[in-house]
Amino acid sequence: QVQLVESGGGLVQTGGSLRLSCSASGIVFKDNPMAWYRQAPGKQREWVAIITSGGTTNYANSVKGRFTISRDNAKTTVYLQMNSLKSEDTAVYYCNTNSYWGKGTLVTVSS
After folding, report:
1. Out of 42, 46, 71, 92, which residue is the most buried by the measure of CB atoms under 10 Å away?
2. Residue 72, SS3 per DSSP
3. Nearest to residue 90, comparing CAs of 22, 30, 43, 53?
4. Exposed, middle or buried, 67 (CB in 10 Å: 0-12/13-18/19+)?
5. What letter does residue 56 receive in the DSSP assignment?
6. Which pLDDT value is given to residue 111?
7. Cα separations in angstroms, 97 against 3, 53, 61
8. In this model, does residue 55 exceed pLDDT 90?
């Protein structure tokens, strides 16, 4: 079955950096677009970034210039490098491909 397992979340100060990872199994990873979403406390889940099978990336305006999505097809892993973190980036971050979701990893940005 398809499994997406996120890791790398934690507590970081404003202006700091974190790198999230999502390890995928049960899919032909190289053929699938991979995305990151996030859900802040009391808010709806929102899209953050996507990378296509060909490596094209796109970002939500709120993270553009600060976050970078990348993929390693050999490791069937997608990454989200998050720099210049703000308190409003605090959320549970989820990995997604097609209709599949991971369980999420919590990122807390403290001021």
Report:
1. 71
2. strand
3. 43
4. buried
5. -
6. 85
7. 10, 11, 21
8. yes
Encoded tokens for 19: 């790198």
Angle at alpha carbon of residue 12, lines to 91 and 77, rounded to 5°? 65
Contacts of 27 (CB under 8 A, 6+ apart): 2, 97, 100
pLDDT category at 11 given cuts 50, 70, 90 is very high
Q: How far apart are CA 34 and CA 71, in angstroms?
A: 8
Count Cα neighbours of 85 within 13 Å in the Cβ-side half-sphere. Answer: 23
| Closest residue by Cα to residue 27 from 105, 104, 98, 103 | 98
Q: What residues form DSSP beta bridges with 23?
A: 5, 77
**Residues ≥6 apart with Cβ < 8 Å to 38:** 45, 46, 48, 89, 91, 92, 93, 94, 107
